[in-house]
Design a protein that fits this description.
alpha/beta; 10 helices; globular; binds NADPH dihydro-nicotinamide-adenine-dinucleotide phosphate
Amino acid sequence: MKPIGKVLCAAGLLAGLLAFFWREPFNPESLVGARVLLTGASAGIGEQMAYHYARFGAEMVLTARREAVLQKVMEKCLTLGAKKVFLIPADMSSPSEPQKVVQFAVQKLGGLDYLVLNHIGANRFQMWAGDVEFTRWLMQVNFFSYVALATAALPTLEKNNGSLVVVSSVAGKIATPFTTSYSATKFALDGFFSSLRHELIMQGKNVSVTLCILGLVDTDTAMESVRGKVHLTASPAPEAALAIILGGATRLQEVFYPWWLQQVFYLWVLAPSNQVLQSYYNYSSP
Ligand code: NDP
């Protein structure tokens, strides 16, 4: 190769590496007054996200099924610095709710800058027992409602150069035992929203799509479902919530939390080995 070719190759490689490792710095000011619709906001990671957004000075619509619990979260958000907070109880197993929730949020906030999709239907951490109806229901709550919420919100997000933030799981990247239906809903999210990201870019629409891949986080429901079945250290929910918010605000395509999950994922892609995964589990069949 001629010297000029070598120089060009080296420059190309450097540019590629820079593009890969470059991270937009997070500017907390960007969230002051940001208009956020947050689902699954009554508990767990969603509740913690509500508190972080409140501290950053965002305006929010919170949704989940339990109105009384949402009310308490809303009151705390206001004491933490949120400019405006509204709540709307909704059950995402009902196909008519997503449209209603987005309309409410747009009307109350005058538009949206962030749609944060975080809710999940009750998970069963157990071997597949043939319950097809449960899987259909979970698909509705964990996947179809996300698609419907995003579809209803896209016009306002496009207008405001906004962001779609989708909370997923390592079980939506790497298949693990005891998570058949849950894993299916999370893989579906990756397929749909990663494809949508390409289409938005192709159409020159400035809406970012951030997929958040989380490991075990110490929420009450997660701890309850894995108790006595796996021996993994759970990460703190407030930290997971912050990682999601920063990823969305800096318009990353994917956020891995904890960070080392990304390395695990790349290793798994290079050499998928079920034995590696199974060594983490200590499960005795009932
Ligand atoms: P939680 O179970 O703690 O919270 C779930 C939230 O969703 C609650 O606010 C709940 O409120 C709401 N919700 C449940 N069912 C419905 C429904 N039918 N319609 C509307 N809202 C509903 O979950 P986590 O905080 O643990 O998980 C949050 C996200 O993080 C999920 O997407 C999950 O897959 C992901 N994740 C979590 C991990 C973990 O270890 N915790 C690991 C990997 C990913 P209400 O009951 O009031 O409706």
